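ok, trying the design again with the full structure, not the truncated one.
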């Protein structure tokens, strides 16, 4: 949007069309969704209202708020970071460059844990390792009223976001937050369920990541700075003590290329099973302490 272009009266429909074409030329995938996110954020309306207001003229103030968001998105910054929010499992989370943006793939893990945990009739405990935004912990707390949840996160900046999200969803009394490095931590008690989406990208793969991931998301949440399997090996050693007898662990991994390694690492546990995400890719493993 040039200064000359800003002088004209922009209808919402015209601005959307122009923005989508602009982002497509910059190589941004799913440009229409990104534009919808940014405009609903600036205008503070729903996506439905966005389309009901197609002929609405944009004010100069609204255009001035929108332009820097569009430029950030054109530079391949994830739109969730641009607007400071992400959707996950039917609710919104605050996000920032200090946390991993929750992925739809992880929703399948949450769905599985909820279905298994709902079989329990007595209160139970859950440990979420590498909680980040709190996406998994918050989703589980919302759907499992009997659960008492501990959320473990090493990054102080991520802990701030985690607390903000727990407060927003009124879950500070259900989710206890610990700022700890799981590689140098011992569980204060054994848990009924442990869940984790740990850093699983090998160091040599980092430079191959798309720019919107490798450049903008925190390396601490992406890679173990080794072969991508550090956390799984650690979990295999520790979960015998951190799980109650019969307790279940559910751990996300980096897709089909890691399946064989992850199966081998957790082979000593009871009933290890690989599960696929909504795209039919191998995505997480579940197993039990004997």
């Amino acid at each position: 949007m040039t200064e000359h272009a800003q002088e004209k009266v922009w209808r919402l429909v015209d601005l959307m069309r122009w923005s989508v074409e602009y982002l497509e030329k910059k190589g941004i995938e799913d440009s229409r969704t990104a534009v919808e996110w940014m405009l609903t954020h600036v205008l503070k309306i729903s996506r439905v209202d966005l389309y009901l207001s197609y002929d609405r003229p944009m004010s100069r103030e609204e255009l001035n708020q929108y332009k820097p968001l569009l430029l950030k998105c054109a530079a391949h910054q994830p739109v969730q970071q641009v607007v400071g929010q992400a959707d996950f499992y039917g609710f919104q989370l605050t996000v920032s460059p200090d946390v991993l943006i929750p992925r739809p793939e992880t929703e399948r893990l949450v769905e599985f844990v909820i279905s298994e945990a709902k079989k329990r009739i007595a209160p139970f405990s859950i440990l979420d390792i590498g909680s980040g935004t709190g996406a998994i912990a918050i989703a589980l707390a919302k759907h499992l009223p009997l659960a008492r949840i501990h959320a473990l996160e090493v990054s102080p900046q991520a802990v701030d976001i985690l607390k903000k999200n727990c407060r927003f969803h009124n879950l500070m009394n259900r989710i206890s937050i610990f700022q700890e490095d799981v590689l140098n931590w011992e569980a204060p008690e054994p848990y009924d369920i442990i869940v984790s989406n740990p850093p699983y990208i090998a160091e040599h793969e980092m430079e191959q990541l798309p720019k919107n991931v490798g450049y903008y998301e925190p390396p601490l949440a992406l890679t173990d700075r080794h072969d991508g399997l550090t956390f799984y090996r650690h979990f295999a050693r520790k979960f015998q003590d951190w799980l109650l007898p019969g307790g279940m662990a559910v751990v996300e991994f980096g897709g089909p290329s890691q399946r064989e390694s992850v199966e081998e690492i957790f082979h000593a546990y009871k009933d290890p099973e690989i599960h696929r995400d909504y795209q039919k890719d191998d995505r997480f493993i579940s197993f039990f302490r004997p």
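Keeping the full-length input from now on. The beta strands are 85-88, 91-94, 124-129, 147-153, 175-179, 191-196, 243-252, 270-276, 282-288.
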